């Protein structure tokens, strides 16, 4: 195996979990290619930034061209970009549906296909995707069928890809979070959202980051859907 410095590509990297992942990979001495629609240039010469919409195949081409031109390899792809909109199923619009498919599924397809092409040639690599525990444990208090429809597809694709590429040295995993404390959730909702987890608290960004970093270093783990959800997926609890 090459002793070159490792390289991670992170989508949805401008804020929240994505921005924290950029710092976590840098703390492990990875070079990073960070992409999102609103990403700004980085002062750190070991962080390359690419502005673009993950749903556009041109973005994946730009991201991986930058990774190879600048850093000469790609070891890890974190599919972190995603959207979440809780509303009753019959209230979703055609635009809501199209946006979910574009960001959560089409973005995953283009980024992952391009990454695995490169990893196959290297004979090593890791893809990890952020999904949601609502796929396995829906809640009446958080109606989110489009999240389950799209992120459930990603869980299934994770297992399928893990088996398809296991002998090629490419691992594929997912992190399935509960409700994480990010700016997307208003402060006044935190108490209610915390109560939805058996552990009685919302997840922290660091909880998800630590799970991603564990999977990245766990060389014998592939096809895993790692739940980071305060016990949600284990079963029902009394609120």
Automatic annotation (TrEMBL):
UniProt keyword annotations, A-Z: Oxidoreductase
CDD domains for this protein: SDR_c
InterPro entries named among the record's database cross-references: NAD(P)-bd_dom_sf, SDR_fam
Keyword S-adenosyl-L-methionine: no
A Pfam family matched in the record: adh_short_C2
Alphabetized GO MF terms: oxidoreductase activity
Family under the similarity heading: Belongs to the short-chain dehydrogenases/reductases (SDR) family.
Protein name: NAD(P)-dependent dehydrogenase, short-chain alcohol dehydrogenase family
């Amino acid at each position: 195996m090459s002793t070159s410095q490792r390289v991670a590509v992170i989508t949805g990297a401008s804020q929240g979990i994505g921005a924290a992942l950029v710092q976590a990979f840098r703390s492990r001495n990875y070079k990073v290619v960070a992409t999102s629609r609103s990403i700004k240039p980085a002062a750190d010469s070991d962080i390359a930034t690419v502005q673009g919409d993950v749903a556009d195949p041109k973005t994946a081409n730009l991201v991986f061209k930058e990774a190879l031109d600048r850093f000469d390899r790609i070891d890890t792809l974190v599919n972190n970009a995603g959207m979440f909109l809780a509303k009753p199923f019959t209230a979703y619009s055609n635009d809501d549906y199209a946006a979910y498919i574009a960001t959560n599924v089409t973005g995953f397809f283009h980024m992952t296909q391009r990454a695995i092409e490169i990893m196959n040639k290297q004979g090593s690599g890791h893809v990890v995707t952020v999904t949601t525990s609502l796929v396995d444990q829906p809640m009446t208090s958080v109606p989110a069928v489009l999240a389950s429809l799209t992120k459930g597809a990603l869980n299934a694709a994770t297992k399928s890809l893990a088996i398809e590429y296991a002998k090629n040295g490419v691992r594929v995993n997912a992190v399935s979070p509960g409700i994480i404390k990010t700016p997307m959730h208003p402060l006044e909702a935190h108490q209610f959202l915390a109560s939805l987890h058996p552990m009685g608290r919302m997840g922290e960004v660091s909880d998800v980051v630590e799970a991603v970093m564990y999977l990245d270093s766990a060389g014998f783990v592939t096809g895993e859907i790692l739940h980071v959800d305060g016990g949600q997926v284990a079963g029902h609890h009394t609120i």
